[in-house]
Amino acid sequence: MAWNEPGGGSKDPWGKRGSESGPPDLDEMLRRFQKKLSGLFGGGKGGDTGGLNARSALLIGGVILGVWLLSGFYIIDPAERGVELRFGKYTVTTLPGPHWHFPYPIETVDVVNVDQIGRAEIGVRSNGDGAAGSLILTQDENIVDLKLTVQYKIKDANAYLFNVRDPDTTLIQVTESAVREIVGKNKMDLIITEGRKEIEPQLEALIQEILDRYGTGLQVTSVNMQQATAPVEVRDAFLDVVRSREDEQRLINEAQTYANGIVPVARGAAARQAQEANAYKAKVIAQAEGETSRFTQILAEYRQAPAVTRERLYLEAVETVLSSAGKVIVDVKGSGNLLYLPLDRMSGATGMPADKALERLLPPAT
Q1: Under 8 Å between Cβ of 152 and 118
Q2: Mapping DSSP to helix (H, G, I), strand (E, B) and coil, where does residue 166 land?
Q3: What global pTM score does this model have?
Q4: What is the four-CA torsion angle of 238, 244, 247, 248, rounded to 10 degrees?
Q5: pLDDT in tens, 23-43
Q6: Which of 4, 99, 180, 228 sees the fewest Cβ atoms within 10 Å?
């Protein structure tokens, strides 16, 4: 006979008998729970149980509410910004200091460090090997092995968190694109030599422009080209070219130094010759003016006394010639003999000038 049929006995499948049969009484369990709570909060027994239970429930609810409200207080450090979200939607960005918001799940706060400097390396691995993509084609169809570092920080916490899925990865991709654009517009020699300092500001400006266009909330602080060389496969040949260029520059510097030493000397010689020429010019002009003045004076005297002036001029000319002559040959009229006068010896013996000695030897003019 089955246990649940009439007369089937007092046993059930769970082994309970008599009055213990059936599920537990929920009302009884609730009463026991309320008694325990009353005992915890000092409640008495008897007819005031209902009032104590209500006060206990209010007290527990107040404590829970207070803890929940206190959990809404937070502090933002000077280097941080807080981004408040209400049900997942942006509401406000908080500045450093204490703040309060509706606790979770109504509002949440994401704290972002805006002063921390991030670092992104392009063409550099952690072990120092060249990364894939560091070889870039230049304008003159050469390949340059470029390695650079970009330093950045967060300037807009809201944009950094919600505008782009992964801003840091986006920065690397934007930098690679900007490098290819800038390097592709320049020649290899310019990139590797003196053009590196010109390319860095261009890269920084282009990277920042693209990041602002995407709304990443990032600010580029510096772009440093750590290395710009030829690929490993042609590096030896390129170094030979570099050495040749250095030799060329050295020879140019030596030639410039030599020119700097010669040109001033030549200029000084030219200035000296010009001064000498001017002095000679002044001398000749002065002599010519003096001769002209003398001739003019003699001409005036000649017009007054031609014979006297003519004889005076003759005597002065003879005196000038004989004063520098050492020998004189005299042809005396009326005789066929030539008279040789060694004036140099005569003047040396007598101590008289040659012209004076000649005057003593010659007869007086009639």
Answers
A1: yes
A2: coil
A3: 0.50
A4: -120
A5: 556 667 667 766 665 655 555
A6: 4
